[in-house]
Design goal:
- This protein is mainly alpha-helical.
- The chain has 2 domains: 351 residues, no CATH class; 85 residues, no CATH class.
- It has 20 helices and 7 strands.
- The chain has a 5-stranded mixed sheet. Strands 1-2 form a two-stranded parallel ribbon.
- Helix 5 runs antiparallel to helix 6 and helix 6 crosses helix 15.
- The chain is globular and about 80 Å long.
Amino acid sequence: MLRFFRLNDPYRLLALLLILCLFSLPMLIDPAMATIQELKSFLVGEALNSGKSLYVQLVDDTAPFTAWVFKWLEALFGRSLTARHLLALLVIFFQASFFGILLINNKAYNENTYLPSLVFGLLAFYSFDMLSVSPELLASTALLFALNNLFKEIEFKVQRDEIILNLGVYLGVASLLVFSYTIFLVGTLAILMLFTRVTFRKAFLLVFGFLLPHAIIFSFYFFWDNQAALAEYFYLPNLTLETWALVSFRSILVLAIVPILYFVLSLFMLNREAHFTKYQSQLLQVMFLWLLVAAVEIVATRARTPHSFFTFVPPLAYFISHYLLLIRRKRIAEMMLWIFLVGLLSMNGATRKGKVSLVNFATLFPSASPDLPVIKEKRVLVLGDEFEVYSKNEMAGYFLNWNLSKGIFEHPEFFQNVVFIDQCFQQDPPDVIFDKQNLLQPFLEKIPRMKSQFRREADMYYRINN
């Protein structure tokens, strides 16, 4: 296999697509249930397709470009996980192909090879949840385009204003898919200062390009006088360093044990055997710094899952490919590639089936609380953290993210909160309201019309059908 992908032949990418399809078959044939983030993507898409305006009539911190992608996916596929996984497979194939071509065009290795594309594709299967249309998968595509422009800028023979502007725009697009990817702007600026003759004008052009997509989004909300909602529910929540750890670091380390070992081996091999041109040496340092920036981003990510580490895939693919190419004995190199392949897929399959006790995916999925009554095919509003209720029901109302919504329900003394909830119930009334803390009661007292529409039983309100 190593010999096959070492050849500089674009048709090798067809073989890569076949390999990725084969590796994804177990996850397509026997898929896991929808994760919490996949369920949230369903709800966001359904809400936007029902006519709700993001941040104005949907209280959530999902990035705008990501939310609009979810809207299109829901319109095309509904809640079909298989369709989304197939689309994710195609995006991974595109990224792997683009990454290999990127390295060939920039002469990153002493030979032109599609091995990095193969390694990239394999790394994208280190965990089963990587095969999903996640915000990280979408944003990583924009980061690859940014990385391509960064390589061009470092090569002194190619320095044009449009390159640095495009670099900023791609970073801006990535941050509107995953806001914590803003950190890559700081990292990119640091890399440019280390490896290029960056001037104040070029630094300003980079920042201008980054801010351009944000300015377009802000202008759109400003036109409809909704800029306050954009700031309150997107920018301000995402500026905090609060992380929702859906999977522990221990589980991530166990999942990634094979890539980590091969990365360490690559560092030893590169230190001993590698002979680079000046430009290749610079690219190696850039990829190492890119990996460090990705590690910093993990600290700021809003929800930590295995697919949160997608930004690690390009630099790891770069270093591991170097390691495999530098092994002098072909049999050993081929054996190490097969060990890498089998190790990744074995860990993926074993952890997906729950056979590795050190890896716990329980919190990655919505889990039904035993004291919750079974509600199906209803329009539901949840005033709390019982997110799993939405797995078999539609979301009604405006309040998806409870961390952002609870401040409204905890302060019925504010007139604007009463008006907002009254507007919500008039435009999108729920059939059932889960309200353990009875936070709705003060609002019902202030809105008699709404009080007459609901009756309370235990921890829930039911709409009265007149």
